[in-house]
Predict the 3D structure of the following.
Amino acid sequence: MRYQANEVIDKLKGLRGIKVLVIGDTIIDQYHYCSSIGKSPKDNVLVVRYLSEECFTGGVLAAANHIAGFCDNVHLATCLGRQRSYRNFIMRHLKKNIIPRFFYREDAPTIVKRRYVEPTFLTKMFGISFMDDHPLPDSVTDEICDWLDVSGYDVVVVTDYGHGFINNAVISRLIDAKFLAVNAQTNTDNMGFNLIGRYPRADYISLDEPETRLSSQNKYGDLNESIIVLSELLGCNKITVTHGSHSTLVYDGKNIKEIPILSREVKDTVGAGDAFFAISSLCAASDFPMDLVGFIGNAIGALKVKIVCNRSPVEPEVLFKFIKEVIK
């Protein structure tokens, strides 16, 4: 490591004054903890016994909470459903320095992703999504676009889960940002329809390996070639690609480097990519060298996988202590 721990920590402390807009899909994550009883004797069905449940603020809400630990001025824009908004729950679980702007669609609930989980090892049995990802009503899109002015922010962080909030009209406003950081996620619910190529430009993109390969239509080829393709497609010279237990790849417009992962204990991987993206976006916007962006992202990810779902964000002091332990 070519950086000293105190040097890295001082750089992270320097993020405090950045003005950030975090925009994207709200997701309420629910864990219903169950113990397995066995297969039903009459049907080909797994039977489980309900134990307890826990609810978390996920999606863009989790990203905003991570960022709010490092920056004083954080604005949040997202869409909730009128049918069951979870607004009061969300407000109780957002950090106090986050200023939210909620838009509402009358024809849908706020997105809920419920997982049935065996609690001992947090093994996910199956999941249910409560959502309607049909296009936003025109009236809601118009309201968002009339409000959305990105000119006053140092960085705009887009957590795009492909659930309908970030449509082409919204993207046309986002691309005017001074610094645009984008994670366009491919997941079970969007079936590969949410690719980074929807964005005409970005200053920083963070994807995982499948998202990178899908977006570049490169199923088996060299992953480095996919990174170059996406760089040229979006005019983007700051890219990170994570892929599980393998090293993170970082691109600075000239070279691609591998940054080793730092995870020592893995309790739950849900939300780790969001944490990586949220804080690495601030670092990229502050012109940190890309190898340092990758290192900090991996440090955040290593701490996040020790936290159940989005029970709490990764706090700066915990990160600083971890960096001191890693860099000796």
User: Anything to note?
Assistant: The chain has ten helices and 13 strands. The chain has one domain: 5-26+59-108+134-326. The chain has a mean pLDDT of 96. Residues 5-26+59-108+134-326 form a domain with the UDP-N-acetylmuramoyl-L-alanine:D-glutamate ligase fold (CATH 3.40.1190.20).
